[in-house]
Design a protein that fits this description.
heterodimer, A: 21 helices, about 0% strand, elongated, B: about 325 residues, alpha/beta, Helicase, Ruva Protein, domain 3, 5-stranded parallel β-sheet
Chain lengths: ~500, ~325
């Protein structure tokens, strides 16, 4: 359809020209949207390579863009009546154009239809569609331009870094290969070819790491050194010629790294347990080396024996304490043990297992011995001292040591109770002051309803017979009245 | 002849002359004058709300003079009875001495009726206006009397004094086509009012339109074209005020107890036609509807307790709704 000259013709011609203009704008916008999708696919291909982003995927993305653009064009393109309303709204025609267009195209005739159409035609003659629907760069154009620039950049990077241009490898690989040479490609291929053995390799790599760290721990001769160090603190062993740094991101071949060396642990968890045990052993055995691997089962057995012995001691101590409840020495023993346990913290860095040591100290320090008291007074060496006296629990057993003291304790207790009784009585006599009862600030009602009953009281007479006081309370009551009389005097 | 361009041109000029005649006496109050003219040409009634002394009575008297119409004024008081407004049957004797009941028409039988302080009368008296306003008839006994056309009731009420008043029921409020707020004049307007009051020469208002011309203009206004999108815009506004409707605006759901009745949409389109015709246009625009929305809808919505508690007014809420509803279609895309 040939374009009509501006400001000519009828209301319909203005509306049609506006409609075509808007349709063209929408069409252009949606074409750029589809083109943006295509460029996005190409960028994906350039970045991920054909290995991960095949050409078929590019076609799929482009097709998706085409479908979206077509769908949006169909959805957003307004009809001619809406175009007339837009012209009215943007050109300030007070709905003359839309009303005239509607009544003309609908064929509805009114008394003022002709006059109104003439008014609209005059108004339409002033309309500049270029101003009503100005040409603007839609956002899809900017998106397409940005994607085109990005694609060109990716293409340039590939062209510069690749000796022979290929879209197959992903761009990061190309960049890494350019930075680290062909070795990178060989390793990458090795990783791709051996995916099945990845699990085993990881275990062996873990073993290799442990074996690499074990000598350092032995040299340090402390339990702390046997624990895995953070990456930043890790230092290669100076005297290990076989040691080489691990390539970042790649699995280390354990067969190469620990070749010729014996694995220290069968698995990492076992290694951890043994490390902790070594930490315990390192305390008492000052200059001794860590035990050989073959003796570990014997060592564990000895530890279990010690634990068993400690439990037996503890149970025995509890029995003693329950038999001699209230004995001052038994009460004082536990704090002394705790004190010695607290003093056993690794203040000098010689032990990393304070929990266990304190547990041992608690087990062993239940008796009121002078040794544990002394151990508590030497904080730096407390842990060692308590460990150096493993048999102190047995030696300091309270069995038979307090023979005959029960009567003394009872006598003391009776004396104390008598004084307390006197105090209570004085307090009961002299009790003064005010009593404040706090209640809720709300309307309150008695739990039991008030019932005003009057009862008659009659003196039945008679004396309280002495025989009515129970026998077991007679001494107590007599004592009570004697105290009262004494205080009264 | 109606339907020609010259008729439209002449009619527009006549209406403009009416406005200029009114403004000989009334200073300012453009929206009030245009609102009263709109209600008259749309065949409705108008409720003016404003404090005393703003020229409401003077406006109606001047309008009567400019339009050459009968004018009556009823001062509403609590003891005013319906018969005082509508008229009553009286015993009349002729020359022969025979007696018969005769209907003595009340002040309602005028073209322009000013119901001053309408909220001071009892609901019984207020409801006496209902039939006259809606049906344009008055029934006395078994006889129904038709009111003369054009018939415009212009009621006033004072928003300040609420003691001893009977607020108009919703059914009666809905019968007013427009509710116009009469505000204080601006400084220059007040200066002009003072000057005219002090002047020894009183302005003479000439009749610019006859009764028949007014009825012709009414017919012409009813022929003004309303496009579907303008009608839909008016409907959208009304539906947005109904809190239970799906198209209700959020503020309606929050603050409005009862939204506008369908009479609100009718009033918007009717008044829009008159407004467009007064301005020489033969189609209603969405701008006409938007400008009239406050006057046509503010007395048709009932606010809930939350609105009163938060000090929201009908105008606040309607403005929010009007701003939220687009008149034109959204831009493409």
């Amino acid at each position: 359809m040939a374009a009509l000259p501006a400001n000519s013709g009828t209301v319909e011609s203005v509306v049609d020209r506006g409609h075509r203009r808007v349709a063209a704008q929408i069409s252009r916008r949606e074409r750029f949207l589809a083109f943006s999708f295509l460029l996005g696919g190409v960028c994906g291909l350039l970045f991920f390579g054909a290995d991960f982003f095949p050409f078929l995927l590019v076609l799929l993305v482009a097709s998706l863009g085409l479908y979206l653009a077509w769908n949006r064009r169909r959805e957003f393109e307004p009809d001619a009546y809406a175009i007339a309303q837009l012209v009215d709204s943007r050109w300030g025609l007070e709905d003359r154009l839309a009303t005239a267009y509607h009544f003309r195209t609908a064929g509805a005739a009114g008394l003022f239809s002709g006059i109104q159409y003439e008014q609209a035609r005059k108004a339409a003659a002033t309309v500049s569609l270029e101003s009503v629907f100005p040409e603007e760069s839609p956002p899809t154009v900017r998106a397409a331009m940005m994607l085109a620039v990005a694609g060109l950049l990716l293409l340039g990077v590939r062209a510069i870094l690749q000796p022979q241009f290929s879209l197959q490898p992903p761009l990061p690989s190309v960049v890494m290969a350019a930075l680290f040479g062909e070795d990178w490609n060989r390793r990458r291929e090795a990783v791709i070819e051996r995916p099945a053995a990845a699990g085993e390799e990881q275990d062996e790599a873990a073993l290799a790491e442990d074996s690499a760290e074990a000598p350092a721990g032995e040299e340090a001769e402390t339990p702390l050194a046997a624990a895995p160090l953070p990456a930043e603190e890790f230092q290669p062993p100076p005297d290990d010629p076989e040691w080489k740094p691990e390539v970042e991101g790649l699995a280390v071949n354990p067969a190469e790294d620990i070749e010729g060396g014996e694995p220290l642990f069968e698995n990492p968890s076992e290694g951890l347990d043994d490390n902790s045990e070594a930490g315990e052993e390192a305390g008492p055995q000052d200059d001794s080396a860590s035990p050989p691997e073959d003796d570990w089962s014997d060592e564990a057995q000895s530890l279990l024996d010690k634990l068993k012995q400690a439990f037996e001691n503890m149970i025995e101590t509890f029995d003693m304490a329950s038999n001699q409840s209230g004995e001052p020495g038994g009460d004082e023993g536990k704090p002394a043990g705790e004190e010695s346990a607290e003093s056993g913290e690794p203040g000098e860095g010689e032990s990393d297992m304070p929990g266990e040591q304190s547990a041992n100290a608690e087990m062993e320090g239940g008796e009121p011995t002078d040794q544990t008291g002394d151990a508590g007074q030497s904080p730096g060496q407390g842990g060692e001292d308590s460990n150096e006296q493993p048999g102190s629990g047995e030696n300091a057993s309270a069995a038979g040591s307090n023979e005959g003291s029960k009567e003394l304790a009872d006598a003391e207790r009776m004396q104390v109770m008598g004084e307390l009784e006197e105090l209570f009585m004085e307090r009961a006599e002299n009790m003064t002051g005010e009593v404040t009862v706090e209640t809720r600030f709300a309307e309150q009602s008695a739990a039991v309803p008030f019932n005003n009953r009057t009862t008659s009281h009659a003196d039945r007479g008679g004396d309280v017979s002495r025989d009515e006081i129970p026998v077991e309370y007679r001494a107590y009551i007599q004592n009570y009245f004697e105290v009262l009389r004494k205080n009264g005097n | 002849m109606i339907g020609t361009e010259s008729y439209v041109r002449d009619a527009t000029a006549q209406l403009e002359s009416v406005r200029s005649e009114i403004h000989k006496v009334i200073v300012g109050h453009e929206n009030v004058v245009e609102g009263v003219l709109t209600a008259l040409l749309a065949g409705g009634h108008v409720l003016l709300e404003g404090v005393p002394g703003l020229g409401k009575t003077t406006l109606l008297r001047t309008l009567g003079e400019a339009l050459h119409l009968d004018y009556s004024r009823i001062q509403f008081t609590p003891d005013l009875m319906p018969a005082d407004i509508l008229g009553s049957m009286v015993m009349d004797s002729d020359e022969t001495g025979s007696k018969a009941l005769r209907f003595d028409p009340g002040p309602i039988f005028s073209n322009l009726v000013l119901a001053d302080e309408i909220n001071r009368a009892t609901p019984r008296t207020q409801s006496a206006l209902l039939e006259a306003m809606q049906e344009r008839t008055v029934t006395s006994g078994t006889t129904t009397h038709r009111l003369d056309q054009p018939f415009l009731v212009m009621a006033t009420q004072n928003p300040l004094e609420m003691e001893g008043t009977y607020p108009l029921p919703e059914a009666q409020l809905d019968r007013f086509l427009l509710k116009i707020l009469v505000t204080y004049p601006a400084r220059d307007e007040l200066a002009a009012i003072v000057d005219r009051t002090a002047s020894p020469r009183k302005p003479v208002v000439e009749a610019a339109l006859t009764r028949d011309q007014i009825l012709d203009l009414r017919g012409a206004c009813a022929e003004v074209l309303v496009a579907p999108h303008v009608r839909d815009y008016a409907i959208s506004l009304v539906l947005a005020t109904q809190p239970e409707h799906a198209e209700a605006h959020a503020v309606s759901k929050k603050y409005i107890r009862y939204g506008s009745s369908p009479r609100g949409a009718q009033a918007l389109v009717q008044c829009g036609r008159v407004r467009a015709f007064i301005r020489g246009r033969l189609n209603v625009s969405t701008d006409d509807v938007r400008e009239l929305a406050l006057a046509a809808l503010r007395h048709r919505i009932i606010l809930n307790f939350d609105a009163h508690a938060e000090g929201r007014t009908e105008d606040d809420i309607l403005r929010e709704i009007i701003d939220a509803i687009p008149a034109a279609p959204p831009p493409a895309g």
